[in-house]
Amino acid sequence: MTSDDLPTFEALPNPRGGAVREAEAALAEARRASGVQMGVVGPLLRAAQALRQAGWLAPQRFTDALVLVAPYANGDFLPQFQAALTDFHAALTRRNLRELACSPTLFAHYCALNAQVARHTQGYAIGFEDLALAGRPVAPATLRATPASVVAVLRARYEQALLPVLKGQEAAGAALDELDACVAELAGTDPYDVWRLAGACARALRENGRAQAGDPEAKRFYARCNLLLAEQGHGVQVAPRSFVRAALALLWRDYALFGAAAEDADAVALLGDYGLTVGWHVAGTQASEAAWEREAAQAEAQAGSEPVVRELGAVSVNVLAYEDFLQTADASMVALAVSADAAFGAETLDPRSGSGSGQGGAGLTASGPSRPDQGAADDPAAAEHAAQAAYRVGAAAQALGLGHVALLADALGLAWRRHAYAARVGSPQSAPARRPVEQAAEALRAMLLRVAAGVAPPDSAVPLALVTQAIERAAPHAGTASALPASSVS
Description:
Elements: H1 21-35, H2 41-54, H3 57-69, H4 78-94, H5 97-102, H6 104-120, H7 128-132, H8 148-167, H9 172-186, H10 194-207, H11 216-233, H12 241-258, H13 265-273, H14 286-303, E1 309-312, E2 315-318, H15 319-343, H16 380-400, H17 403-425, H18 434-452, H19 461-473, H20 486-489
Antiparallel strand pairs: 1-2
Helix pairs in contact: 1-2, 1-4, 2-3, 3-4, 3-6, 4-6, 8-9, 8-11, 9-10, 10-12, 11-12, 15-16, 15-18, 16-17, 17-18, 17-19, 18-19
């Protein structure tokens, strides 16, 4: 592939990130086979298996789509299939897990692949969130109690402004202002008020220009907000999970790809409420950040010999990045254990003594017995500290390429964020069940011990499924209306 053939990926590559070399080699083989119109399913299946072992769920899902469409990759569709294969292979070599999940280029290919499959099978719909949020739990969001008459008036205003936006008329700018105003009037102060999420998503769509450009996803979002208004008018107080996932994915996309700056702190905090983390800019612009990355790589090369690669199962990692990760993980797991003890109202013990809580008792060097369930967290500040410690592990694991560790750590961080929320609003039923949270923490600690020993971490599917179920089944807080000032309810 020449430089002229390279796809345009706007996010920065991750030169210190882990590589799934078996998947890269299998995709290269599939590209060669497709070029001479030979079978590609075998290499693609090997790539999918390697990505699954690595815990790279979004790229695995993309590979699965390639496998499904391979029998139909002929005739007029063959160039499109080959372009998808080429771009995906190029993206995989950039080793940026957030880009692989949120790349608009890859999602466009994903839609085309699934559309081709749908032509030959029973039709089905896909959304950006299906790729971006693969394997991630979604916290429940609520609609505050609002009189039906108030909702009816707001919906009439919303629908009147929605039409120019959907039709792409010249008055769309003023109409978008009116839509934003309606959403702002609907939003409450509760962290999990769905209109708060919708407002942040709408701002992101305007800041990146998609709303003004008539992007189909932006139009779909505004139309779904109208349907959500209708449900609120009928007294629904729990937002549809499908809407929450779609809005989250759209809000996360640009921050996941390009990072966040200081002025984005509110959006980053909102994403953290739902278990999604972002990187922070280390420089003012993409160009200066790329230059910073190059200088850092040069300094690293001058500091020693060529970096050694360590094999952790399906993932090959830079040994210097690996050592940095272990330091971050050890400190974060110690902080997580201490904060978990405090959050559950238990006596905080030295996490390295081996006599801590069922949270795993420690960082990478100790564990302890579990305790009976005591309900929701008693200390919201400690629960918040536990969430931040888990998120630090997740972000570091994602940068290194340890997909299973990253997914479980982010889910655990979300569980603790929900515990902190439940304690603050005095709603124990809104907190995830304690036992799955402890099991997830113990599983994460065991995974990190294996990584520290230079062994591939196990599959996160079981503990991830348990903590996901605990997060999504916890009862949404129903007291949002009474917690708000009277002016915001009207």
